[in-house]
Amino acid sequence: MKRLLPAPLLSASILALWLVLNGSLGLGQWLLGLVLALVVPLATASLRPTPARIRKPWTVVRLILLVGRDVIQSNIVVARGVWRARRHPPQGTFVRVPLELRDPHGLAALAAIMCVTPGTVWAELSLDRGALLLHVFDLGDEAAFIEHLKTHYERPLMEIFE
Predict the structure, then answer these.
(1) What is the torsional sign of CA 97, 101, 103, 106?
(2) Which DSSP state fits 153?
(3) Angle between helices 27-43 and 8-22 in degrees, nearest 10
(4) Maximum pairwise Cα distance, the chain
(5) Count of beta carbons in the 10 Å neighbourhood of residue 54
(6) Which one of 3, 26, 31, 42 has the lowest number of neighbouring Cβ atoms within 10 Å?
(7) How remote is the C-alpha of 132 from its chain's centroid?
């Protein structure tokens, strides 16, 4: 069964996405969706990293809620910054964040968090994965920003993946 369905969650997601995007629950769409749901994971198996092992599921829930809250707060901060840009131009800058997180799944999750959070953009990961370069829209206190990133995102991701 593992040979036919190497990634069952991915297969289910592909089928659901196919049906939603086509807006039809007809037999033909189900068959095409099933074919895609079986073929795509098999064809892309070599592109996927080793399976992730989530060690603390409740930490995942807490992290999702924390990221949701931070995204809302960042939206407000960035909107204010844009609104007041003529009087008080934002102090956008690059910040180098030293990392302890090494797991590729954790780094991918951190990249997703940084990209969905308004005001931050993932710019570069060092070759040794020991430092992250971010662009921050309006940086007040660099040390506080780094501490926030490490305590709110990096440490929970290390608990989850390492």
Answers:
(1) negative
(2) I
(3) 140
(4) 63
(5) 11
(6) 3
(7) 15
CA distance 112 to 39: 26
Nearest to 134 by CA among 157, 155, 117, 159: 117
Tell the burial category of 109 from Cβ atoms under 10 Å away from its Cβ (0-12, 13-18, 19+).
buried
* Tokens of residue 128, six digits: 């040794």
One-letter amino acid at 53 equals R
DSSP code for 9? H
Task: Yes or no: say if 100 and 156 are a contact pair by the CB < 8 Å rule.
Answer: no
CB 106 within 8 A of CB 115: no
1-60: per-residue pLDDT in tens? 667 777 888 899 999 999 999 988 889 999 999 999 999 998 888 887 777 788 888 999
How far is Cα 18 from Cα 10, in angstroms, rounded to an integer?
12
